[in-house]
Specification:
The structure holds two protein chains of two kinds. Chain A has two domains: 2-110, Nucleotidyltransferase, domain 5 (2-Layer Sandwich), CATH 3.30.420; 143-339, ATPase, nucleotide binding domain (Nucleotidyltransferase, domain 5), CATH 3.30.420.40. Chain A has 13 helices and eleven strands. Chain A has helices spanning 33-41, 72-79, 84-100, 120-123, 129-132, 143-155, 208-215, 220-228, 232-237, 243-247, 258-277, 290-302, 338-350, and strands at 2-7, 12-18, 21-27, 49-54, 65-67, 105-110, 163-169, 174-179, 182-186, 282-287, 330-335. In chain A, the strands form two sheets. A six-stranded mixed sheet of chain A has the order 3-2-1-4-6-5, sandwiched between helices. A five-stranded mixed sheet of chain A has the order 9-8-7-10-11, sandwiched between helices. In chain A, α2 packs antiparallel against α3. The longest helix of chain A has 20 residues, at 258-277. The radius of gyration of chain A is 21 Å and the shape is globular. By secondary structure, chain B is α+β, with helices and mostly antiparallel strands. In chain B, 41% of the residues lie in helices and 19% in strands. Chain B has 15 helices and 13 strands. The model of chain B has no long low-confidence stretch (mean pLDDT 94). The chains are: A alpha/beta, B alpha+beta. Chains A and B meet through α4, α7, α8, α9 and α11 of A and α4, α5, α7, α8 and α9 of B.
Chain lengths: 351, 389
């Protein structure tokens, strides 16, 4: 049995994986929390490993999955500052469990580790050293997902995959460019505000905008909330909305075809990353409900026809590969299941 | 500040009569400021203190008058017309009022341009004058490319959207490149890189109209420039102000004047200088990082716009760095076969950049062109259109 903890600002999610079954639950970190989890899980003595998701490992954590010891707790504590809302919980839970269960394996899954070794010209911001030494750099994110996708496509039998762009479609759409298994680009920057438009955040904007907002007397907190919670799809559509609302949008909403803004956003990043790779041989799209996204993905791919991307005429039931054999760029679609991804990583960690 | 005097019989027959440049305007230093005038194959150099651009304008206009060059009409360049101006306009009391509203949009450039306009109207009262905008060419950019995903009331209140700049230069490229390639200007797709010693940007041009560009609401975003940072995570500003107590104006100053190539290299804002350091193996680590970052950002934008356009016919390099730095062009065009771009490396190294020329390999599907910037020429053409000369 494997137990995995996945933190969020409001509560702690946990997954119990035993055989092929996954039991899921969530709890608040109040006194007695662990015993409550144990009550839901049943027996704890068969735990083989306990895993913890760390969403931001800064420059410290370099492996997507690694074995934790009491020594690595210190390292983890130093990561809390990168994303306190999440990391603090990861730190506290793992410290507790390592003390309480010294006999089991403890695994740390790090979502930024894949991007620790980005080329320097990609990870650096063009600001003075004075600012860079304060930790200002591109950290990326969702590495566990993108790296998993790369491995999955390789396992699907594509031995020729060398230069890929991996696109996670969802409320926090983001992309990575991968060259021979190593990360070459990420759309996520210092934080996940940079990059693509998401359900509540604005994505790429001119930095002068922040200055202009500030000069009207808005506080940091207000600006932060405005850019990361009240912008994005919510702002453009005028109501709280998610990824599926956008790709299913028909016609134009109040003059702006949101779907077009969104697909253009994706296309521009695809072009930028393909260019950075010096050409791509594969595109990987990952989504929780990937089958529903196929028409949207196909429309994006049609606009890459000029690069020799050839879609299959009829797809049949198999959605995993959308392109014909003679297509210069292969398109793969993977269903994203977070638990499944973590289980795959856990297996690798235990090995 | 530069000027050119054109003699135009028609829009197809335009000659430069005189031109010149005021150097070190408003610069305090050991070297004196001076104005250089070219007229009738003669060059005159007048060394004189020039306190500001307004004074420079007065000196230049006086010189033109003294040289007995008769002026029929005077055209000005204005960087940021915001949403107030979608094209060139004749100056009158109403347009002047609207120009005043634009001053905060480009706090460095716009007030200077306004002062020059003010001085010129004082010097030549009654002379028809007009103003052209660097943002106007980009007013054709469609909504899906200019919209920032911010709340509507904020967008409305501040006018936040992508405006884009270097419009006069792109307007020239959109007109000149099809002519040079003997292509129909209504059926050609171009990615143009305006690489200047100060600001730089890229534009995607489809059938003569801009569909996207790398600068945004202000000239700060997009490419890495000499001292401007280009694209950064907007959260960085909040983080730095909130955590380290930077004042907003202090941070804006850092991002506009101390970042970019200067911020990365720590020793120079000049790409030529940085390339020189790499060859000389001086400060090589920082110099190489600055160069690689400059190229990387540019390559990403070119790739984005090639995809946005669904493939292109021509890749154009213009302005100082664009036409003079073979190293930049060579590195940018490296590994671009995926888009059909193959540079003729030998030709690229020896070409002078004085006139429009092609530097692509014969195998290249896409034409690669050098285009000396002729922004004044576009200002002249706009004037002919406005005055129906």
């Amino acid at each position: 049995m494997i137990l995995i903890f996945d933190p969020s600002p409001l509560y702690l999610r946990w997954y119990k994986i035993e055989g092929g079954n996954i039991l899921e639950g969530k709890c608040k970190l109040k006194p007695g929390w662990f015993d409550r989890i144990i009550r839901s899980i049943g027996r704890i003595d068969e735990v083989e490993a306990i895993g913890y998701v760390l969403y931001h490992g800064g420059e410290m954590i370099k492996d997507p999955v690694g074995i934790m010891t009491s020594g690595s707790i210190k390292k983890l504590e130093q990561c809390v500052k990168y994303l306190p809302e999440y990391n603090d919980l990861t730190f506290k839970i793992s410290r507790y469990c390592i003390r309480r269960f010294p006999g089991v394996k403890h695994l740390l899954f790090c979502d930024t580790a894949f991007f620790v070794n980005l080329p320097q010209e990609v990870s650096t911001y063009a600001v003075p050293f004075e600012l860079r030494r304060k930790g200002v750099k591109r950290y990326g994110g969702q590495g566990l997902c993108h790296q998993w996708a790369w491995k999955k496509v390789k396992a699907l039998g594509d031995k020729h995959i060398r230069n890929a762009v991996s696109v996670y479609l969802g409320n926090y759409t983001n992309m990575a460019a991968i060259k021979d298994g190593r990360a070459r680009e990420t759309s996520i920057g210092f934080t996940n505000l940079e990059g693509m438009i998401s359900s509540g955040s604005c994505g790429d904007i001119d930095p002068t905008v922040v200055f202009q907002l500030y000069s009207t007397g808005m506080s940091f907190k207000t600006i932060n909330r405005l850019l990361s919670k009240e912008s994005g799809f919510a702002a453009l559509l005028g109501k709280k909305s998610g990824f599926s609302d956008i790709i299913n949008q028909k016609g134009a909403a109040k003059g702006i075809a949101l779907r077009e803004i969104y697909s253009y956003n994706i296309l521009k990043y695809l072009g930028g990353f393909i260019s950075s790779l010096g050409g791509a041989d594969s595109l990987i799209f990952i989504g929780e409900e990937i089958d529903h996204d196929i028409p949207f993905i196909s429309q994006i791919c049609l606009r890459l026809k000029f690069l020799g991307l050839k879609l299959k005429r009829s797809r049949g039931r198999d959605h995993s590969e959308l392109t014909r054999k003679d297509s210069l760029i292969k398109v793969y679609c993977l269903k994203y299941d977070k638990q499944e991804v973590l289980v795959d990583w856990a297996k690798e960690g235990i090995k | 500040m530069t000027y050119k005097v054109f003699q135009a019989k028609s829009s197809g027959d335009i000659k430069v009569v005189a031109y010149g440049k005021a150097h070190r305007v408003g610069v305090k230093g050991t070297e004196p400021s001076f104005i250089e005038h070219h007229f009738n194959n003669e060059v005159s150099r007048i060394t004189t203190p020039i306190a500001n651009h307004q004074a420079a304008a007065r000196l230049i206009l006086k010189h033109i008058e003294d040289s007995r060059i008769k002026i029929d009409c005077l055209g000005h360049r204005f960087v940021h017309g915001g949403s107030h101006f979608k094209g060139s306009v004749l100056l009158d009391a109403r347009t002047l009022k609207k120009l005043l509203l634009c001053l905060p949009l480009a706090p460095i450039h716009n007030p200077i341009a306004f002062a020059v306009i003010y001085e010129s109207r004082k010097f030549f009262p009654g002379l028809p004058q007009y103003v052209t905008f660097d943002s106007a060419f980009h007013s054709a950019i469609p909504g899906h490319a200019y919209t920032y995903a911010l709340p509507k009331k904020i967008i409305k209140k501040f006018g936040f959207r992508k405006y884009g700049f270097h419009g006069l230069s792109y307007s020239y490229a959109a007109r000149e490149i099809p002519r040079f390639l003997k292509r129909n200007p209504k059926n050609i797709k171009i990615v143009a890189c305006h690489l200047g010693t100060g600001g730089s940007s890229v534009a995607a041009i489809k059938n003569g109209r801009s569909i996207d560009t790398s600068m945004g609401y202000s000239p700060l975003s997009g490419l890495i420039m000499s001292t401007r940072c280009g694209d950064i995570d907007p959260m960085l500003m909040i983080y730095l102000m909130n955590t380290y107590g930077y004042r907003p104006d202090e941070l804006m100053d850092i991002l506009n004047k101390k970042s970019g190539l200067l911020g990365i290299s720590g020793f120079s804002s000049d790409i030529t200088d940085i390339i020189h350091h790499i060859y000389e193996k001086k400060d090589i680590v920082r110099a190489r990082l600055a160069f690689n970052m400059y190229i990387h950002r540019l390559k990403k934008y070119i790739g984005s716009y090639i995809v946005a356009l669904g493939g292109i016919d021509a890749l154009v390099f213009t302005d100082d760095i664009g036409i003079h730095s073979w190293q930049v062009r060579e590195k940018v065009c490296e590994n671009m076969e995926w888009a059909g771009i193959v540079l003729d490396n030998k030709l690229n190294r020896k070409i002078s950049g004085d006139k429009t020329s092609l530097i692509n390999d014969t195998r290249s599907k896409i034409k690669i062109a050098l285009l000396p910037a002729e922004e004044e020429f576009i200002i002249c053409l706009e004037g002919i259109k406005l005055l129906r000369l």
